[in-house]
Fold this protein.
Amino acid sequence: MGGSVKDVKSKVEVDEVVRGGSPVVLHFWASWCEASKHMDKVFSHLSIDFPHTHFFRVEAEEQPEISEVYSVSAVPYFVFIKDGKTFDTLEGADPSSLANKVAKVAGSINPGEAASPASLGMAAGPAVLETVKELAKENDSSKEKSQIQPGLSVPLKKRLQQLIDSHPVMLFMKGSPEEPKCGFSRKVVDILKEEKVKFGSFDILSDLEVRDGLKKFSNWPTYPQLYCKGELLGGCDIAIAMHESGELKEVFKDHGIDTIDEAKATESGNAKGGISESTGLSTTLTSRLESLINSSPVILFMKGKPDEPKCGFSRKVVEILQQENVHFESFDILTDEEVRQGLKVYSNWSSYPQLYIKGELIGGSDIVLEMQKSGELKKILHEKGILSEETLQDRLKKLVASSPVMLFMKGTPDAPRCGFSSKVVDALRQEGVSFGSFDILTDEEVRQGLKAFSNWPTFPQLYYKSELIGGCDIVLELRNNGELKSTLSE
């Protein structure tokens, strides 16, 4: 092994190593994802500290067979394998958790010795160094110590303020003005170009510390974030409203923000929707793409079809739209190479799936997933008139009644995310009870709302014909008394 990362070329390659029983860590990544690149640096450094563990890098979209096996639907995604079985997983860019989980699956490098902090490098950051040191000292201890999330450090606060003050108009966004990585960031860039103001930008996908820190610093949970002379104006919705009302122009004028003259604005490529007139696409193809994008209020350009997705990322977006009860049309880009390649240029978005709402690009799998978790997706669907206003109470009633036996749990029946949920799933399966489920980790509104709705503060929660049966303890008690199956079939 020798402490290096190997790029996987086939499923067979992984299967052979897994069968050998050695510790294996898989990093599913994508070249277009900045967070993947950031985490890959940490991944590479960790491979040096744990030379007796196999570190494999898997291009998720290029290796769909492997991605399917490990249920990969977003990147970065890590799978930790020990003794031929999946030991743990990690989704998202969290360097500290990655080091924590690697150390657990790999074990101590040498008994009583900490991992070499020098080899982790600056990319890992102090949180990773501390975590690896602690885990190496504890060796095989299975107890996880809860860690208090520290507030913003003085150096970070100073750095954030310096970034905010670095330009009179400053935009913290996903991607760059030339290559926005989400529809909301693109929209604000277009607005600033229309306002003809000079502005600085910072790609929050390139720096996890800034991305997470600025949310706390500004008390604003999403991106983009637009600042003028050090003052937060808001995100995409606020920028649009201020632009359309003329208020944004007044704010810039009041703060003495200079505008760019017409000639310079033209040179900078002030094109509507971020589409350059010099894309090189033919008029016919451009017209066809626009027609497809506007063929339905919600359209998903994906690999495969909704009932038969051909990649985990497409499947994830389909599942999200179905969870949100959104009617949508789709286009299988695998069936038309002209559309597949042309849309990348037209949208300035290099990967699939691509989700459009009312002709506007929302983004790919990671963006849609993040928007669902934050509630942004539901908000925009209501604003665009795709979903009618529905009270949380109405929604919870529908969810509870969606299956005769309904389990609200952490994770899914095939991949529970907590021991209590796992026990209830096992109990139901042992009794041969069919049931529906809802992963409360995917929807914070449902998670918090259901506690009040049921007057039951914890999860899992099991319902039968819309009536609450109880949580883990009650379900296990019913099973042990031989009453579970009869209770759920009365």
In short: Confidence is low (pLDDT under 50) at residues 109-150, 262-278. The first strand starts at residue 5 and ends at 7.
